[in-house]
Design brief:
mainly beta; 13-stranded mixed β-sheet; 15% helix; globular
Amino acid sequence: MLSICLETCDGAGYALPVILRWDLEYTGGVPCDSMTATCLYDAGMAEILPEATRFTAYQDGEIMLRGVVDAYEISLSRQGLLVTLEGRGMAALLLDNESEALTYERAPLSEILENHVSPYRLAIDRREDISGERYAVASGSSQWKALQGFTHRFGGFDPYFMPDGTLVTASLWGSGKALKVNGDTPLLSLRKRESRYGVISQVLIQDKVQGVSHPVSNEAFIKAGGQRRHVLYMPRSTAEDRRYTGEYQIAQSALEQLEIDLELPFPFAAMPGDRVELSLARLNLTGQYDVVRSHSRMDEDGERTEITISRRETLCGYPEQLPSASGRSGKAPPPTWA
């Protein structure tokens, strides 16, 4: 059973009454994880709700999501007087706050974390040690963008948040948890979508100041008949800047080219970063996929999980980042589905 505890700005705690409906969505990136929960209103909430700033959701004693309380709503219905809370994971603190415009001639990851993460008192699990030269944070960038741009540019990965609110500076993909879905798995629904729309075949980087043009191509998509060129202008850029920008644009455009949605009749079946091995011969769906979104909920229809899986294949020569850690919590992987 899911339970939720609130924390007020003065440090007081409050456990919500029995929750009637709840919804936890995990994305592994942006937009960040989110929570919605509805319970019966209690008179003791009158002073608590306006002061609530943090929430922690537990399932059988395990933290399923810790984050920021965004809003609450009190409503009267046939079920009685209800309270609905909305919140987001701790990534919200980095997404909601803007960075100053900064230029780093040379910076280690520790300096980036000190400037863009530490002010928000977030727990950090630093697993990678990277540094970079000539890194600029544009005016209006969020603190998340400042960090994510640095780690992606110089480490080839995007950081992520664990359910307990800890920021991990490593690749999310390849947690070590392997899940199997076959003909005996109790699937409630399945949907496969493959879209060519939006996938870039070539990016032409132009530096008009230096009079340089640099094409970067998505050879696999071109061989499959794809044709969608983008032109970007980067004044006074280096060859490395142009190459990275083109490859990044192509990789981002292909992230949602293939997606498969699975619905299972139990909560928290998988989390973003987990691997799913499909063996559904009747639908011609086989092979390994990555979980990119997970949506667990409980309502009048019971508990269930909707997961979206895809392939996070890298393009244009990027190495696949798959750390050997056994899982985000440091525990051994749980058993696979039969």
